[in-house]
Amino acid sequence: MLYRFTDAGTAAQIAAGGKAVTESLPPGSTVGEQSWLTVKKTAERDTALYIPFLIAFGVLGLVMSVLIVGNVVASAVGTGTRRIGVLKAVGFTPAQVVRAYVGQALIPAAVGTALGVLAGHLLAVPVLAETEEVYGASSLAIAPWVDLAVIAGVLCLVAATAWASAWRAGRLRTVDALAVGRTASAGRGRWAARLAGRLPLPQPVALGLARPFARPARALAMGTAILFGSVAVTFTVGMGASLGQVMEARAHDAADVVVPAPPPDFGPRGSGPEKQPRADPVAVAAAVEAAAGTGKHYSAAKVRATVSGLTGTVNVIAFTGDASWGGYTMVSGRWIDRPGEAVVPTPFLAATGTRIGDTATLNGLAEPVTVRIVGEVLDPRNDGLQVFTDASTLTAARPDLTEASHHIAVTSGTGVTGYADALNRDLAPLGVTARAGGLDTGSDMVVTLNALSAILTTMLVALAALGVLNGVLLDTRERVREIGVHKALGMTPRQTVAMVLTSVVVTGLVAGALGVPLGAALHGWVLPAMGDSVGLRLPGSVIAVYHGAEVLPLALGGLLIATLGAFLPAGWAARTRTATALRTE
Questions:
Q1: CA 78 to CA 215: how far, in whole Å?
Q2: How far apart (Å, rounded) are the C-alpha atoms in residues 468 and 292?
Q3: Please, are residues 298 and 407 in contact by the beta-carbon 8 Å criterion?
Q4: CA separation (Å) from 189 to 184, 221, 486?
Q5: Is the model's pTM score more than 0.70?
Q6: Cβ(299)–Cβ(404) under 8 Å?
Q7: pLDDT tens digits for 140-154?
Q8: How many CB atoms lie within 10 A of CB 63?
Q9: CA distances from 222 to 19, 112, 129, 182, 230 (A)
Q10: 430, 287 in Cβ contact below 8 A?
Q11: What is the distance between the alpha carbons of residues 423 and 414, in angstroms, rounded to a whole number?
Q12: Distance CA 441, CA 245 (A)
């Protein structure tokens, strides 16, 4: 039964309402109750996991948006230097020039913002519909203030960035603007050209390598866009590796073969043929021990107990045999060595106010059991309220541990599938079945985070490539006459493509080399924050997931992004006819 109270904002109000409901019902009809505040807290804890992750990608996206807008407006000012001189010559004041370029930037920005808001609404429809179904809500929609904030924020961002770039245009002297036009400053980058010319490289490649030094500001803008794209790729690769390790620690799937525990028998035990006897864990363990190819193995049984200071029950996992190899990732301390010791997850320590070396008493069994905490293990199941101990610790308090799962590591050279089939023939009379592979590691949270990472990273890489495309296209159009001269002197289309592509090689390599450590640093900040949001402390093995074999490909990712962005302008330059290029001014 669901009850809605007039006042239900605090736990005390919920308790008072629950008491009134209980008193109005027949005695003994109420078994338990759950407050909506408890459900809200659980939902907020699950949602909090995504917040550091989304903040990281949101900041990357905003920074790259600023870079793209600034690069485009600065490029428009750079290409229109001669036009600015003409405007000033016919009487435009510096303020009017600035307003003209700000307005010129705001027109396409307004169109893009409108399309973006519309696309955001369309993408939100299926998400909000599913949310309505899950939570039983109705009429969920994006609040109008969100639309207004997005529109105002984007237009203010464009206006501020455009003003900063156009302000330089307003300060240009009329004579200088008319004289310089679109030509780069004389002598800029000459030293780089001379140095590249001395290298044992083809001439087109040498010309391309020296190009970033002729336009350092533009190269810096492109490099910054590539840098953030490389950061996003590095961060995503690390996030996927870390989440995989967390799920392995969660599922403890190090075993090659598992004999799952039989389901609990809640019905009455009869004597008919339809009633099968419960599997004897000792007999199952004996069959596993006798099977050819058995290496290490242990069994695990689960019981429920209560702990002072905690509401509800905790899961107590009792092991028979050495389970240290079973995929239990230690955060600190050590694994259990003898009866009376236990390891617990981080949320258990936080909820009970204990730490390694303290004791905890397990109640609700045949008799209280006191265990000493010797280690902190990574395990988010059951909200981290679990205790792992040796089965002999519970011998007196719970001697009938029958629902046990068995975990086996086969010997080297033994086929897992063949071993499981042979073992099942021995286990058939006992009523249990072995299966190859560890426990299921699937998780909706991991699938969602990996999918979000892939989508957001693809968007940021596309933005970085577009930033390179804009800069290289502008540079190529400015050099069209120079390219025509090169073609007249015998440069082939392939050499033209090589010259344009190599013009971004230095920028891509430097940005990629810088992006890898920055992406690793971002990963090292976001992942612990995600763990803290759900009360977990992550071990160093989950965070230190970057290895030498991965660093070099990640560093070359910047070069790949730069090449993708420069490919279309390179093709356009190669297709331009020599006569057309020479006539272009």
A1: 11
A2: 61
A3: yes
A4: 10, 17, 18
A5: yes
A6: yes
A7: 788 889 999 989 988
A8: 16
A9: 66, 22, 40, 19, 12
A10: yes
A11: 13
A12: 10
